[in-house]
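Researcher: Let's do a round of design. I'm pasting the structure tokens now; please hold your answer until I've finished.
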């Protein structure tokens, strides 16, 4: 069935667009929630008349959307997150996170107009901000690990990969240097025990 959208629905279309949807989706969700009306002949005529009358208003809204997109031209986000030893983030970076980071930079953007996949790994990504029908902005988003997380993960990997003989030799100097840290000294004692046998 074809419907005329009464508001922007990300992934489907923008206000006053005529879109084709499945009958169930149209009848059970869009029309009862007043997000759309059936695109009958009379509704299409009414839409054409409304668009003629609102042409100036639409042009103004589009110009404002273009200004907002232009203001973000040189903006990119770097989001610092906690990362586990496998490189996977604790939690995910999503549209709410991006909206919060933008508000910290002074850009008040509704998270409902931002689309992106939830990010669960460190790397470079892209969020799309839908300002208006033909005005979209691709925002670069870089997700980086906290600096103190990376060094902790590296020594554990090396010690796990090293042969047992090398473990025993490396454990003795490590235990002497890292006496203040209780956790490391306990690991060293555990590693020394097999060497003594």
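Researcher: That's everything. Go ahead.
Model: Designed sequence:
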């Amino acid at each position: 069935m074809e419907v005329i959208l009464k508001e922007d629905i990300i992934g489907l279309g923008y206000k006053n667009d005529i879109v084709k949807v499945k009958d169930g989706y149209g009848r059970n969700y869009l029309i009862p929630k007043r997000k759309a009306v059936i695109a009958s002949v009379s509704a299409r005529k009414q839409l054409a008349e409304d668009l003629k009358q609102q042409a100036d208003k639409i042009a103004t809204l589009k110009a404002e959307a273009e200004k907002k997109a232009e203001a973000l031209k040189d903006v990119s986000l770097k989001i610092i997150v906690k990362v586990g030893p496998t490189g996977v983030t604790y939690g995910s970076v999503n549209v709410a996170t991006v909206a919060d980071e933008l508000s910290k930079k002074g850009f008040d953007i509704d998270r409902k107009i931002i689309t992106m996949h939830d990010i669960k790994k460190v790397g470079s990504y892209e969020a799309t901000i839908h300002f208006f029908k033909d005005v979209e902005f691709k925002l670069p988003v870089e997700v980086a690990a906290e600096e103190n997380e990376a060094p902790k993960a590296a020594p554990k990997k090396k010690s796990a990969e090293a042969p047992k003989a090398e473990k025993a030799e490396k454990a003795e100097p490590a235990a002497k240097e890292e006496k203040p840290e209780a956790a490391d000294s306990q690991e060293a004692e555990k590693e020394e025990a097999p060497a003594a046998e």
